[in-house]
Automatic annotation (TrEMBL), chain A:
Protein name per UniProt: NADH-quinone oxidoreductase
Domain annotation 4Fe-4S His(Cys)3-ligated-type: ranges: 78-117
Gene Ontology MF terms: 2 iron, 2 sulfur cluster binding; 4 iron, 4 sulfur cluster binding; metal ion binding; NADH dehydrogenase (ubiquinone) activity; oxidoreductase activity, acting on NAD(P)H; quinone binding
One BP annotation, GO: ATP synthesis coupled electron transport
2Fe-2S ferredoxin-type domain mapped to chain residues: 1-78
PANTHER family referenced in this protein's UniProt entry, alphabetically: NADH-UBIQUINONE OXIDOREDUCTASE 75 KDA SUBUNIT, MITOCHONDRIAL, RESPIRATORY NITRATE REDUCTASE
Assembly information from the UniProt record: Composed of 13 different subunits. Subunits NuoCD, E, F, and G constitute the peripheral sector of the complex.
Keywords for the protein's UniProt record, in alphabetical order: 2Fe-2S, 4Fe-4S, Iron, Iron-sulfur, Metal-binding, NAD, Oxidoreductase, Quinone, Translocase
InterPro entries reported in the protein's UniProt record: 2Fe-2S_ferredoxin-like_sf, 2Fe-2S_ferredoxin-type, Mopterin_OxRdtase, Mopterin_OxRdtase_4Fe-4S_dom, NADH_UbQ_OxRdtase_75kDa_su_CS, NADH_UbQ_OxRdtase_ferredoxin, NADH_UbQ_OxRdtase_Gsu, NADH_UbQ_OxRdtase_Gsu_4Fe4S-bd
Catalytic reaction annotation: a quinone + NADH + 5 H(+)(in) = a quinol + NAD(+) + 4 H(+)(out)
CDD domains: fer2
The 4Fe-4S Mo/W bis-MGD-type domain, residue ranges: 215-271
Gene it is expressed from: nqo3
GO terms under cellular component: membrane
TrEMBL record, chain B:
The family this protein is said to belong to: Belongs to the complex I 51 kDa subunit family.
An MF annotation (GO) of this entry: FMN binding
Matching InterPro entries: ComplexI_51kDa_subunit (IPR050837), NADH-UbQ_OxRdtase_51kDa_CS (IPR001949), NADH-UbQ_OxRdtase_suF (IPR011537), Nuo51_FMN-bd (IPR011538), Nuo51_FMN-bd_sf (IPR037225), Nuop51_4Fe4S-bd (IPR019575), Nuop51_4Fe4S-bd_sf (IPR037207), Soluble_ligand-bd (IPR019554)
Catalysed reactions, semicolon-separated: a quinone + NADH + 5 H(+)(in) = a quinol + NAD(+) + 4 H(+)(out)
Biological function: NDH-1 shuttles electrons from NADH, via FMN and iron-sulfur (Fe-S) centers, to quinones in the respiratory chain.
Gene name, Swiss-Prot/TrEMBL: nuoF
PANTHER family: NADH DEHYDROGENASE [UBIQUINONE] FLAVOPROTEIN 1, MITOCHONDRIAL, NADH-UBIQUINONE OXIDOREDUCTASE FLAVOPROTEIN 1 NDUFV1
Protein name stated in the entry: NADH-quinone oxidoreductase subunit F
Residue span, NADH-ubiquinone oxidoreductase 51kDa subunit iron-sulphur binding domain: 329-374
Tagged with keyword Translocase: yes
GO biological process: cellular respiration
Keyword Coiled coil: no
Enzyme Commission code: 7.1.1.-
From TrEMBL, chain C:
InterPro entries tied to this protein: NuoE-like, NuoE_dom, NuoE_N, Thioredoxin-like_sf
Cellular component aspect of the GO annotation: catalytic complex; membrane protein complex; organelle envelope; organelle membrane
Cofactor-binding details, from the entry: Binds 1 [2Fe-2S] cluster.
GO molecular function annotations of the record: 2 iron, 2 sulfur cluster binding; active transmembrane transporter activity; inorganic cation transmembrane transporter activity; metal ion binding; monoatomic cation transmembrane transporter activity; NADH dehydrogenase activity
Organism whose genome encodes this protein: Methylophaga muralis
Domain of life: Bacteria
GO biological process terms, semicolon-separated: inorganic cation transmembrane transport
UniProt-listed Gene3D superfamilies: Glutaredoxin (3.40.30.10), NADH-quinone oxidoreductase subunit E (1.10.10.1590)
Pfam hit, one: 2Fe-2S_thioredx
Stated name of the protein: NADH-quinone oxidoreductase subunit E
Record's keyword annotation contains Metal-binding: yes
Family in the record: Belongs to the complex I 24 kDa subunit family.
Residues reported to bind [2Fe-2S] cluster: C96, C101, C137, C141
Taxonomic lineage: Bacteria, Pseudomonadati, Pseudomonadota, Gammaproteobacteria, Thiotrichales
Length: 788, 432, 170
């Protein structure tokens, strides 16, 4: 710590700080453009020049370290003269087209020029003009406005892990851009909109939609992955106009993913369900809430009376709030049904009750020095978790990526191991065996049947040793592992390895599923952890029940086995859906539709991978007749004449659950030990949810659907060996046959896909016509004539 | 008085660049002696300090002091980098040193590497110097064959590798941190200092960057002693120095003369002002140093301190001589264009300000000047000066400020009469 | 004309064998993991093997070869004046017009060249033989006025000397 003085105010600050950081902490304003607390320091804009005693010229506050006894003057004549000079230079080539600039009203250049600029320009030469570049559907460029602060360039290099933007040319002719026009490929690209201090990079979907001063800002929480990024929703006249990042150092720092930023565009989609509707004699009728809810409750009561309550099942989207999840299961359980689940894409639940939802802060992940990604395409599953892993890698952390295919993680990776299902178990047991050699006989004995005879390979030993020797290690089990038909075995081996190495185990939750878990939206236990014997998400479809209650899901996109789900729904006697969106298939099998508010329109609570409870309120009123989920469920409880549904706010729901959870003991659960591993023969489908197909709101955002990430929705990726075996070539049409279902896809030969696996996009129109997302498939080349 | 005693000491020989020529003047003897006797690093630094050798690239920083900043015993990679990115208008000495005496640069670099604890060196030579690069590469082959480079040099246990790295046309790479960026394969954009290269240099490792002439002086200093070198020049301004005499002189050329020589004498060596014309002004240290009017210049001694007293800088010793026929507006326009063209674009005052300066001066030269232009030029130059990441901003501002200061009347005449004071508009400059 | 270079595909197939050897030799001059340092020498080599200019494909292939982002190569290629991003003539004439050359008559040399070749600065003769460039100080001020013809400096120029020089060029 050192003692300094800024503008006469004595401060005691960390000696590693720069002047600007000390000033920021003390609330002393120093103007700046290039400096950003979460990016490297370049000192190129020169706006933060201040006077420092004993220095013969003004110094940049962002790049001058504090020193004991230092006296800084931010408002002295020397400082102001330097700052005014810089401001004049910044403005001479700036178009000053504020009236038609989207940044107007929130432009750092505009703001500062009020304080430091001159009313009259002394520059009478020609101004620079720069041609705009098309860099994709999300970010609009107006590069003549660029002041070359390079925040966007540094963001790509340091945070997104992909240097797409650069500064080409030199001097006055230096231009920020991609040099060759192309769409940005980063899933974090929208952050450059927030970062750009001027109107050079703005939101393309938001262009010319509203002025900064017309909008009101509401804090919110993103619901699309398990990070729970903090958002600010900017609204005007009851409409969300755009979404920007809200700083929260412990969660998302200054960043949000493009998915969190642009999903709001789905809110106004024409498929939005706006009125309660009931189907009578095969005809859909718009009705009022009372009628629709009575219709729904009657329908379920009828099934209960006739077929028993265990013929009713409820499935809820992992993007639902804690409160919605809690009320959903409470209502269904009051009916007498335990068939409640939110784990829609999973199919192996043998380890239920042994769940390993251990919390880990994002900061701890970033400071880990060994990280294993297991079946986890982390960039699309949780972009800001990927950012933390990337920071660990930049700091020298060793990253091992074990997956069914190789993706570019945009970070230095120590090793990427591509395995098929069988090879995955060989690998995991090899890692475990390396470690078991060092533990007590009892543990070793309990797992012996899972180990193979052969000695562990060098890779297996290496992974084991890296985890064991790390200062802090973490194993992240991702969606592809959790959705695998033998997910329990994968998770249990990961849990064993974690126990033997002291590594944290992070079973990456899907969106808000950690909250839904706590809320008891599960078939095997409720919120008070009382054991139940309901049907899981898999069995619910397989058993083909009489009645289904869907909460904000599109089963053909959101479930592990679209074909089974659709079949069950079509055969059911009664289907009700509390949904934000409708589609043809839903109208086909459903009997009642209740319009649901989106997350921007309701209050609720999100619980992320760090187990932090983050509550938020609605920013706009739900459109049409749609209502917040907790209110719909409360009234359904009332109409069903159940006790305990007299909530007046979502906080009341939250409090009730919190009280229940507080009474629970936190007994540690044993690791599940699988009985055996079943071998998969033939070609196994591996369905991965693309980054912009995760939930119904995202799927209805037009701009996100236009990104390059969505161009492979009808592509099947296979290894060269598999292609050769079936006589398939690049670009061929291939028929994918699964039981009685067949679809046609385009072949992409990719040596980064594991042997005997066919990689396909899940949650796509094509995969909606198939069965088990990880089932066996038959491949055959299609003649061109039948392609159409 | 004997000239050419330091960097040009092989110049009188046939094929002055060969290993044989270099050996004949005592070349590589100092390196062999140091490696044989395992001379202490501190001893060498002390000798260089006592010689009063100052950086020959322009800044004039004491070389021994610079070397002493290196954490020479710190483990890990450290680098010695030679700056042969000669590009300051008026400067053309390093090209001749490399063309005619490359081995002396190599020996100087190996000794410097030994002294600062570096095991690897790079000579960054500007890309247009095709011939010097070839000469240097050839000399490297010879030095390697003679066992002066590589592992365990002359069985001393000292390892040192040396490579040549070409530039590709960017004046800014002569700035030492821009040079390091360029050497790392990036745009030549200067780094903000601190940290200085001695702490964070090439690839983030401790690095010393010295000019070609500086490094080539080292073997001679060690051979003849610090006092001998110091006494070649004047106190605090040790040695001989190459002056590039260009512009309006009868015998333009590179002259290696003692520091402190009166300018009048140096001008005489260069054959005097061409055609017997009257001297008007001199830019004594390269285009970035302030211009000095003839009367002051004729009283000035050619040393760091002497030229400093005259209100300018010795810089790289690049003496641009201008006679009475010179239009100062046109001369400044060309200099201003250079800094506009060579600004790297990284920081605001230089990126925006150099273009502004150039455009206003061009307008004045084109007869479009306005009354407020001169004060505005001074104001803009002052707003650049001292406010940029590197010295290019100052370099762009200094000529503008000094030209207008000393020749304001001539600029005013251009604005008032829309034509040139020294020549008829249609004749412009009168090339003798 | 040069034979076409391989610009796509596997790293060990890019360009041709001779160029790969040259690039590898440059990469070996820098510490492990610092192959980006070879960008400038590599761009010189590629430009010389590609009729004197750098195409986008050539630069992308170099980025692949050095395993660095393509934009990093574009940044370097657009920063340094020796790199040509459009086709140029068979011979490149770079005339210095900076202060020392200006004082010694570079305007006359430049005008003479432009008249003789019938092109302005930055242009290429119709027969594709010459490209004429105005350049900043080339570090031969005591030989002013001067020009660089391909890889050779020519100093103390006069219009007659320029004529003789152009006459010698094949």
């Amino acid at each position: 710590m050192v003692n300094i003085e800024i503008d006469g105010i004595p401060l005691r600050v960390d000696s590693a700080k720069m002047i600007i950081q000390a000033a920021d902490e003390a609330g002393i304003d120093i103007p700046r453009f290039c400096y950003h607390k979460n990016l490297s320091i370049v000192a190129n804009c020169r706006m933060c020049l201040v006077e420092v005693d004993k220095a013969r010229k003004a110094l940049p506050a962002c790049a001058t370290p504090v020193a004991n006894g230092m006296k800084v003057f931010t408002q002295s004549e020397i400082a102001l003269q330097a700052q005014r000079g810089v401001m004049e230079f910044l403005l001479i080539n700036h178009p000053l087209d504020c009236p038609i600039c989207d940044q107007g009203g929130e432009c750092e250049l505009q703001d500062l020029s009020l304080g430091y600029g001159s009313g009259i320009s002394r520059f009478s030469e020609k101004k620079r003009v720069v041609k705009d570049k098309d860099i994709g559907p999300l970010v609009q460029t107006d590069m003549t406005r660029c002041i070359h602060c390079t925040r966007c360039v540094r963001f790509g290099q340091e945070i997104a892990g992909i240097k797409e933007l650069g500064a080409t040319g030199r001097g006055e002719h230096m231009e920020i851009g991609t040099y060759v026009e192309h769409s940005l490929a980063s899933e974090l690209s929208g952050n450059i909109i927030d970062l750009c201090p001027v109107g050079a990079l703005t939101s393309k979907p938001f262009r010319y939609k509203a002025r900064a001063w017309e909008m009101t800002s509401h804090p919110s929480i993103a619901m699309h992955d398990a990070v729970g990024s903090n958002l600010d929703l900017h609204t005007r006249q009851n409409e969300v106009m755009r979404v920007v990042a809200r700083d929260n150092d412990s969660v998302n720092q200054s960043w949000i993913s493009d998915r969190d930023r642009f999903s709001y565009l789905g809110l106004k989609h024409p498929d939005r369900l706006l009125n309660p509707m009931i189907k009578q004699n095969g005809e859909w009728q718009v009705t009022d809430w009372q009628t629709a809810m009575e219709f729904a409750v009657d329908g379920l009561k009828h099934v209960k009376t006739k077929n028993g309550a265990d013929q009713i099942a409820g499935l809820i989207s992992p993007t639902a709030t804690l409160e919605e999840g809690y009320l959903f299961q409470k209502w269904l359980r009051a009916f007498g049904s335990q068939n409640v689940d939110h784990r829609l894409r999973q199919q192996d639940f043998s380890d239920a009750g042994h769940d390993q939802f251990s919390a880990m802060s994002l900061a701890d992940i970033e400071s880990s020095d060994a990280i294993v990604l297991l079946g986890c395409n982390i960039r699309s599953e949780a972009p800001l978790l990927a950012h933390r892993v990337r920071q660990s890698a930049y700091a020298g952390g060793l990253i091992s990526d074990i997956n069914f295919f190789k993706t570019d993680l945009l970070m230095p990776v120590d090793r990427q191991v591509v395995v098929n299902s069988a090879q995955l178990f060989v690998l995991l047991s090899g890692v475990a065996k390396t470690l078991l050699q060092r533990v007590d006989e009892t543990t070793a004995k309990a797992w012996r049947h899972m180990m193979r005879e052969k000695a562990p390979s060098a890779t297996e030993q290496n992974i084991a040793m890296q985890l064991a020797n790390a200062h802090q290690a973490v194993i992240i089990v991702g969606a592809l592992a959790n959705q695998h038909p033998q997910a329990s075995a994968i998770r249990s081996l990961a849990a064993l390895i974690s126990e033997l190495t002291g590594a944290h185990l992070l079973i990456l939750p899907d969106a808000n599923s950690q909250a839904l878990h706590l809320a008891g939206a599960l078939p095997h236990c409720d919120a008070s952890q009382e054991l139940k014997d309901g049907l899981n998400a898999n069995a619910i479809w397989e058993e083909q029940l009489r009645a289904y209650v869907l909460f904000n899901i599109e089963p053909e996109f959101d479930c592990a086995d679209p074909a089974a789900a659709l079949l069950a729904l079509q055969r059911a006697g009664f289907v009700m859906a509390i949904n934000s969106f409708q589609c043809d298939s839903l109208r086909d099998y459903a009997d009642v539709l209740l319009p649901l508010a989106a997350f921007t329109e309701t209050s609720g609570t999100f619980v992320g991978l760090d187990h932090q409870w983050q509550s938020f309120t609605g920013a706009v009123a739900p459109p049409g007749e749609s209502r917040p989920g907790w209110k719909i469920l409360r009234v359904l409880g009332n109409i069903s004449k159940f006790n305990g549904f007299d909530y007046v706010s979502s906080e009341g729901v939250r409090q009730e659950l919190q009280d229940q959870l507080n009474r629970l003991s936190s007994a540690r659960k044993s690791i599940y030990i699988p009985a055996e591993i079943t071998n998969v023969n033939g070609v196994q489908l591996i369905s991965e949810v693309p980054v912009y197909r995760t939930d119904s709101l995202v799927r209805h955002s037009k701009a996100l659907q236009l990104t390059p990430e969505n161009q492979f929705l009808d592509t099947m990726r296979i290894s060269p060996a598999l292609a050769e075996k079936y006589g398939l070539h690049q670009g061929d049409a291939v028929q994918i046959q699964q039981d009685e279902f067949a679809v046609s896809a385009t072949v992409l030969i990719d040596e980064q896909v594991a042997e005997n696996m066919a990689h396909l996009a899940a949650a796509s129109p094509l995969s909606a016509r198939l069965g088990n997302a990880f089932g066996n498939v038959e491949l055959s080349a299609m003649m061109e004539s039948i392609d159409a | 008085m004997q000239l050419d005693q330091v960097c040009f000491r092989t110049m009188h020989l046939d094929q002055p660049w060969s290993m044989e020529s270099y050996r004949s003047v005592g070349g590589y003897q100092m390196l062999e002696k140091i490696l044989r006797e395992k001379t202490r690093q501190e001893t060498i630094i002390e000798i260089i300090k006592n010689s009063a050798l100052r950086g020959r690239g322009g800044a004039g920083f004491p070389t021994g002091l610079k070397w002493s900043f290196m954490p020479r015993r710190m483990p890990g990679d450290k680098y010695i980098v030679c700056n042969s990115d000669e590009g300051e208008p008026g400067t053309c000495k390093d090209r001749d040193i490399i063309r005619f005496n490359p081995h002396q640069v190599i020996e100087g670099m190996i000794i410097a590497g030994y002294t600062i604890g570096a095991q690897r060196g790079y000579n960054y030579i500007r890309g247009e110097f095709f011939e010097p690069i070839e000469r240097f590469e050839q000399a490297l082959i010879e030095a390697r064959e003679a066992g002066y480079l590589g592992k365990n040099i002359l069985n001393s246990g000292f390892n040192f590798e040396l490579f040549c790295h070409p530039g590709a046309g960017a004046y800014i790479c002569g700035e030492e941190t821009a040079l390091l960026e360029s050497l790392e394969g990036k745009k030549g954009q200067p780094r903000y200092k601190p940290p200085f290269p001695a702490g964070y240099g090439l690839y983030g490792r401790p690095t010393t960057v010295n000019n070609t002439e500086t490094l080539a002086s080292v073997p001679v200093i060690l051979q003849h002693g610090a006092d001998w070198f110091h006494e070649l020049g004047t106190p605090n301004n040790g040695g001989q120095k190459i002056f590039c005499m260009s512009g309006h002189v009868n015998k333009p050329g590179n002259y290696e003369v003692p520091l402190g020589m009166p300018f009048a004498e140096l001008l005489e060596l260069a054959g005097g002002v061409r055609n017997g014309n009257k001297l008007k002004a001199v830019i004594p240290g390269g285009s970035s140093t302030p211009v000095v009017p003839a009367d002051v210049m004729m009283q000035t001694a050619m040393s760091y301190d002497g030229i400093g007293k005259a209100g300018s800088m010795l810089g790289a010793g690049s003496v641009i001589v201008m006679d009475e026929t010179t239009c100062m507006v046109k001369a400044l326009e060309r200099i201003a264009y250079f800094y506009y063209e060579e600004s790297c674009g990284q920081c605001t005052p230089c990126r925006e300000g150099t273009g502004w300066l150039y455009r206003v001066i061009k307008r004045i030269e084109d007869g479009q000047g306005r009354q407020e232009d001169l004060d505005r030029l001074i104001d803009v130059a002052n707003n650049i000066n001292g406010n940029t990441i590197c010295a290019l901003g100052d370099a762009a501002a200094a000529p503008v400020i000094s030209f207008i200061k000393h020749f304001r009347d001539e600029f005013q005449y251009h604005i008032d009469h829309k034509c040139c004071l020294v020549s008829e508009p249609e004749l412009k400059l009168n090339y003798g | 004309m040069t034979t076409a270079l391989q610009l796509t595909g596997h790293r060990d197939q890019l360009f041709n064998q001779v160029i790969r050897q040259q690039l590898d030799s440059w990469i070996s001059k820098y510490p492990p993991g610092q192959s980006q340092s070879a960008v400038i020498p590599a761009l010189h080599i590629l430009q010389d093997s590609h009729d004197g200019w750098l195409s986008e494909g050539l630069m992308r292939a170099l980025a692949d070869y050095l395993e660095i982002p393509a934009i990093s190569v574009f940044e370097v290629a657009t920063f340094y004046t020796m790199f040509e991003l459009k086709p140029v003539g068979k011979h490149k004439i770079s005339v210095c017009t900076n202060i020392s050359c200006l004082l010694c008559g570079s305007e006359e040399i430049a005008n003479h060249l432009q008249k003789r070749l019938g092109i302005g600065f930055g242009q290429t003769t119709a027969d594709g033989k010459f490209t004429l460039k105005e350049v900043e100080c080339l570090g031969a001020c005591v030989g002013a006025p001067m020009l660089l013809l391909d890889r050779q400096y020519h100093e103390h120029l006069t219009p007659d000397k320029v004529d003789a020089l152009l006459g010698e060029v094949k």
